[in-house]
Amino acid sequence: MSIKSIKVLSRNPDHYLRETKNDIHKVQRNYDPDLHPFEAAREYKLALNAVKLERVFAKPFIGSLAHSEGVSAICRHPSRLACSFTGTVEGELKLWDISHKKCEWTIQAHNGQIWAIVAAPDGGSFFSVGNDKTIKRWSLQRAQEDNDEFPIDTWLCDSIITGITHHRYKNEFVTCGERVLLWDANTKAPKFSYNWSTSGDRNDASVVSIKFNPVETDLFASSDQANNIVLYDTRAKEVKKLKMTMRVNALAWNPMEAFILTAASEDYNVYSFDIRNMNKSNRIVTLHEGHTSAVIDLDYAPTGKEFCTGSYDKSIRVFRTDEGKSRDVYHTKRMFKVNCVLWSGDNKYILSGSSDHNVRVWKARSNQKLGIMKTREHAAMNYAEELKRKYGHFPELRRISRHRHLPKHIYHATLEHRVMKQSRARKEANVRRHSKPGTVPFIPARQKPVVGLEDDETNMPGSSVDHENDT
Amino acid sequence: MEMASAVTEKKKKRMRGKKPWQKRNILQSEVKDGVRITEYNSISLREIKKPSTHIYPGRKVIDPKLLQKYSKGEGVEVKSIGYKNKYLAHKLKEKEKAFQEAEAAAARAEILLTETSGQLLAEDDSYTSHITQRDIRDAVDITSAAKSFDLNLNQFGPYKMRFTRNGRHLVLGGRKGHLAAMDWVTKKLHCEINVMESLHDVCWLHTETMMAAAQKQWVYIYDNQGIELHCLKRMDRVLKLEFLPYHFLLCAANETGYLTWLDITLGKEVIRFPTLKGRLEIVCQNPYNAVLCCGHSNGTVSMWTPNSREPVASILCHPHPIKAIDIDPTGRYMATAGLDRVLKIWDARNLGECLQSYSVGSGASSVKFSQKGLLALAMGNVVEVYRNVTNGGASEPYMRHKSGSTIRDMQFCPYEDILGISTYHGYSSLIIPGAGEPNFDALEANPYISLSARKESEVKALLSKVPAELITLDPHSISQVDTPRLQEKLDAKISLLHIRKPKIDFTPRYRMKGKSGSAQKFKRKQKVKEDKQREFLQAAILQRDQFMEEDKKNKKEKSKPVEILDRFKPKKKS
């Protein structure tokens, strides 16, 4: 025989099969690329599946909290995730345990609408302002014991107060209405009054929204009926006043990049300003569009990467801060005009109060899985996310991930607005074509909504008390 | 004084950029009883870095050749991006690092591969090709010896055969209708039927539970009990079947030159078209990119995808009709055998480059690559196996076997050292040491797969079914940047030069007072149409003229001869 040595592949099946049912599965791996063909194409298919599953599991609505009236204000507790306050248009104030969908406390707080609620930074108390020209401060502890009907403190004003915001840590808060008033929580009279009313017209200076900056804590911004956005500083009394073409309904500061101020406008758009460039033409950093009616309220996610808006078009949209188009849009058959929105402190939920007597709880990411996940499930989710990131730019994937079913009225309104926009652009082009070159300038879309900036020292508002002394 | 200052300056220069504790090799420095005591480090830092003095020198260095095997490509040139966008550059760098880590981890995991490849050595005075199957059977262990067996099937031959992808199951199809499926390792017969028609080819589908058989008129699908599941009437008079496992496509080549791709998950035909190349009998798939390769009687090999009615590639391989082709499992090499008794090895990726050419004693009727790169040639009733065919080292056969009758079909069994040959009078499996891949990947193909694992892997495979549109010559094209090719650029240019009127779809609004009669409506429609078309044409012509002018200008600038004194001319400002 002429065989010197021989070896033939002969595997012992015991090494590859499990002995009993309770044994672990033996999975032999060999990462040789030749044994794994079509790596890219298979990955692409998996990415496609991941995107489809994302849309399959996109069920953002979790539940609703019923009220007896339309909800007009909503506020979160600074440190407790499940605790939220809501106020209705008939002056009812409610304290909610969101995780159990349970109303812990109800009280008729004001005569008429509650315009705004804000929690004190320590979380022990919260303020509400209403149509009855009062500011009321409520104790959370006493509210939860459910035996109290009276506020801790009440401030009386001479005019209706439409908004309130609290300083990040000082015992101060600012209210707005006909005038912007700075209050110390310990005294009954306002500390300072910022009075912009120059024309004497009451409507001119009626301020609709006000917000303290969470980082540069002495800075706050307001928006008023005269289409102005005004920036104040409690120390220097220095102000900047930006005139817009349309009214701004709500303001919000980016909690992580506090120089970004986002304004929900009556002209269906949301604008993000860089307040460092307020006097330059590039002040609007991002123009967020998508709503088909006036945007009423907005709130930032605690990460500062996203915010949600509520609009009169009966929908809620979620925007990424650096993108112009919305990431998602939430709507239901029964939801009516949205008055207030809130992003929860754990970045997982969105609350929206609408005029159909409901506060709705939504997931912040519509396909998010709630509850505890197994490690393998987590790994699969992470893999799917990575695949989506890797292949997300492919047209088929992009089409699926971007598609949203919209209610008829929004769908048609969007089409109509598009036609209107096109026709306006066409008209402008025609005008430009038939006029002397250079007379019709090109104005970028980000500059159009702004009329101009009023920034001179002479026009600075003084306290109303000072004014009286002068005269 | 001056000297001293110069010295201190020098010192300063040396010390610049160093932190105070890095100045000297100070181990410890403290003030004790008003006197500073400083302990100096006797070993310099450079000495510490030496790996030889270190107890634990770090992870084992991976062999660069091994890394090359698991390489995922060259990677991105980060430097060129870094100038403009540091953030992006950092991101890319991180990504690149992740890729490298993955490569290294895959290379390190090779230590976990337990099995080694088979081999055969002959005594110094003899050749391995003289070793017979009986010698091998006597030499190896009993389980391996049991893998070499013969089946005498005298009645219904000649036989076609096919192994499953995990190498566990075998299907035999006799020309006279005999169809049998078996687990050839345990010799357990799944089914044995006679289809009562002529049988031209057999093929497993994605699992061992289903097989396709090309019969006299149509293609039929049977399950492993021999029950007819489907009759595919879209595939008629088929001579050759191929199954693309990752695309779930059953491909059929037909007597009249038609190619058909059928998605077996939906039962829908993807495409069917005539190749216009005559009878298609010599067909194989490229496992690397799922392209079908057909050998023709004019000596060409054409490659087909379901996305084009033209061949994606066509090579003139032999001056005579082609008898057999095969592509190796890695997709690197293609072997063709012609009637001219020449065996040629081609680079299957860089088409048109013939790597090797061998003259074979008599015309090969079949060629087959094994997983480890052995090449089997069937010539009449003799099968010869060669090693190192791709790099020209195959001067004599590695093994040789003479069968009782003419060989009709053969295939190397995946993950086993077995070559199965089917003849006019049966089937025999030959032991060819070193043919199969020793280490399988259980998630791709597992010879020891359990029933539940098979079910699960079937679901997984279905979920990652690759769309038929992605079949291209280069399977990585989906992960590459889509740059317009020269032809596309030319087409774009041509389309710019040949302007066509656009179609304008316009429905006139209804108007009162008899203005919406059909004639009026038509007139209005025509007017709008003409206006819009005129507008478009004017713009397009303007664009074309601009383009032409630019083109001319470029040509003029190029054609101008350069004179010596031109260098003194003022430079143009761009």
Percent strand of chain B: 25-35%
The overall pLDDT average of chain A reads: 89
Helix vs. strand class of chain A: alpha+beta
CATH superfamily of the domain at 61-366 in chain A: YVTN repeat-like/Quinoprotein amine dehydrogenase
Q: State Rg of chain B.
A: 35 Å
User: Which chain pair has the greatest contact?
Assistant: A-B, 37 and 69 residues
Give the low-pLDDT segments of chain B: 1-8, 10-23, 43-48
* Overall morphology of chain B: globular
What is the subunit arrangement here?
A: heterodimer
CA distance, first residue to last residue of chain A: 126 Å
- Say how many strands of chain B there are: 31
- CATH class (first level) name of the domain at 61-366 in chain A: Mainly Beta
Class from secondary-structure proportions of chain B: alpha+beta
Numbering strands along the chain, what is their spatial order in the largest sheet of chain B? 4-31-30-29
Helical fraction of chain A: 10-25%
- Major sheet characteristics of chain A: 5 strands, antiparallel
CATH architecture of the domain at 61-366 in chain A: 7 Propeller
**Order of strands, widest sheet of chain A:** 15-16-17-18-30
Largest sheet of chain B: 4 strands, antiparallel
Keywords (chain A): Nucleus, Repeat, Ribonucleoprotein, WD repeat
Subcellular location (chain A): Nucleus, Nucleolus
WD repeats (chain A): 107-148, 288-329, 338-372
Family (chain A): Belongs to the WD repeat DCAF13/WDSOF1 family.
Main features:
heterodimer, A: 471 residues, alpha+beta, Methylamine Dehydrogenase, Chain H, 5-stranded antiparallel beta sheet, 4-stranded antiparallel beta sheet, 30 strands, B: 574 residues, 31 strands, WD40/YVTN_repeat-like_dom_sf (chain A), repeat (chain A), Sof1-like protein domain-containing protein (chain A), ribonucleoprotein (chain A), nucleus (chain A)
